[in-house]
Amino acid sequence: MRLQAASPLEMLRLTRFPPQWRRPPAAGVPAKNVGFRKVASGVSSLGSASPRSLNIFDRDLKRKQKNWAARQPERIKFDYLKEEVGSRIADRVYDIARDFPFALDVGCGRGYIAQHLNKETVGKFFQTDIAENALKNALEMEIPTVNVLADEEFLPFRENTFDLVVSSLSLHWVNDLPRALEQDTDEIQVNYPGMFELMEDLQGMGESNCAWHRKALLHRDTMLAAAAVYREMYGNEDGSVPATYQIYYMIGWKYHDSQARPAKRGSATVSFGELRKINDVMSQGKKSQ
Fold it and tell me: In what residue span(s) does the Methyltransferase type domain sit (predicted)?
């Protein structure tokens, strides 16, 4: 299915860079359980992906991981990264000079984007996620929302339904994803006490590995050795270890009468090469005044 709509998309890749900020002991505020406003089953069955797509990730396992994370009593403790990225995506939506009657969040989790949007910008917000527990524990928000249980790979909507489509920290586990996104990126860097705290947080976020060919078990000695190497190679002077979450964005939106249409290709009357002369033109204008 092709959605002709605005689509800030993202991918998440864990890399290692110098630190900028620390993993907080807790993040966010307690959220009220707003429950389901509407639920429709759209979760795919095993092996039902498009025959043209790569089958790298176990989507059923990812659903279980996200459901487990959403059930934990301290789930808010692990929301700091998703809260931050959700806020940044909302800021990008506000940069578009128009409103959106119908919008969609693909892989919404607990509603990390919707909580930052207002009714003046979005009329009705559809939130889809593969994990029913995430939808049941959605954050409180201002805009009217409809929660839909659905797999990101099999969205139950007709083409051209939405004016805006967003997604935050979900599509990196999707098998049927187009070519890797190469748009301008954000890097969110976090300091952790050690490798095991980093792994704990990834599990708490529901971001544990779900690749089909993952190793089911690593021996304790292997884990301790890896932690020691990590600290030796990348550790900070205070004993902490850094990790960087690299966020990829792509943004576009459906045409609206309130916005100017783009000029036709080839209709420009000035080339980019002429722009280098702009300083000379401005200097001559100042001299003539």
Answer: 104-182
